[in-house]
Amino acid sequence: MIEEKFKLENQLCFRLYTASRLLTQAYHPLLGEHGLTYPQYLVLLVLWEKDAQPVNDIAKRLLLETNTVTPLLKRMEAEGIVTRSKGKEDARQMIVRLTKKGHDLQKKLTDVPDTVGNAVICENVTPETVPGLFGMLDDIIKQLKQ
Amino acid sequence: MIEEKFKLENQLCFRLYTASRLLTQAYHPLLGEHGLTYPQYLVLLVLWEKDAQPVNDIAKRLLLETNTVTPLLKRMEAEGIVTRSKGKEDARQMIVRLTKKGHDLQKKLTDVPDTVGNAVICENVTPETVPGLFGMLDDIIKQLKQ
DNA sequence: GTTGTTTATATCGTTCACGATGCAAATGTA
DNA sequence: TACATTTGCATCGTGAACGATATAAACAAC
């Protein structure tokens, strides 16, 4: 008999991993239409809030390493969504800026948040319960960031 | 001014994605000690519950595609953790079985669930609130599976 | 100023994820 | 039995993630 602690049903991580994957998949057709991946969409969210950021600030905001973000940004540069240029004050930095195409994508993706948001609404996940879910996930993230 | 719906702080998916990544990272040192990755650990959880399963059953249980699971299992086979052999009733199936090494890993990993479990305990995430979190995540998963 | 350290980014290798496609075994139908 | 379809798995290509390492610029100490 398998111990309770090893049952898949008792694993928080498996739930987070699965929910994250499935929700990312829900974004896929909406973003793919515009040649974007989900992590690239996250970079856009960061740059729409504040344009012209160094790689490090983007990575820190997304809690990713630069070795993940750098290739991702180079692909976005190749797609003409962002530009990357050396910082003037600090020549080590690479400043990432939205192109017109990158900026304009916001209008084209205007329906994405609500479409995905509506896709998860169900019995126990409603506008009333989501804040509580956010709180717990934020707590987990804060805790694991140390 | 950026719209509310595009703010990173209002995204469920980003929270799930980040929490999943960070929690998986918490497993990394514990599993890496035994030459395992997190997805490989998930396969072990499935096989410890029930040995000798075809690739498809493992993939379905983890909500993954076989094209993800097949290479993963081949790596585990190369590590001597599982064997893969053609099914006798249905020659299309590949039956995956734990080796002694794979079976014995359970004892060696006995502390992993509690160690990781304790790492997430914090103010809003306690033995009392976790069932509610499980319920919401299960709801999201169920909803997105269609 | 020379040297040592830190910081910002990039490169490399490995392992997922996953869409698209291929192939052989099983199944269904005429 | 013949042929089409479905099923189970594998292969291929691309894009993340991430540990390890490299490189150049900035900074610090002497």
Taking the alpha carbons of the first and last residues of chain A, their distance comes to 36 Å
Quaternary structure state of the chains depicted: homodimer
**Broad structural category of chain A:** mainly alpha
Mean pLDDT score of chain A, rounded? 97
Strand content of chain A: 5-15%
- Regions of chain A with pLDDT < 50 over 5+ consecutive residues? none
What is the topology?
The structure is a homodimer of 146-residue chains.
Chain A: H1 12-32, H2 38-49, E1 53-54, H3 55-62, H4 66-78, E2 82-86, E3 94-98, H5 100-108, H6 112-120, H7 130-145
Antiparallel strand pairs in A: 1-3, 2-3
Helix pairs in contact in A: 1-6, 3-4
The structure holds a DNA duplex (30 and 30 nucleotides).
Describe this structure in words.
The structure is a homodimer of 146-residue chains. The model of chain A has no long low-confidence stretch (mean pLDDT 97). Chain A has 7 helices and 3 strands; from the N terminus they run ααβααββααα. In chain A, a hairpin with a 7-residue loop joins strand 2 and strand 3 (94-98). In chain A, helix 1 packs antiparallel against helix 6. Helices cover 60% and strands 8% of the residues of chain A. In chain A, strands 1-3-2 form a 3-stranded antiparallel sheet. At the A-B interface, helix 1, helix 2, helix 6 and helix 7 of A face helix 1, helix 2, helix 6 and helix 7 of B.
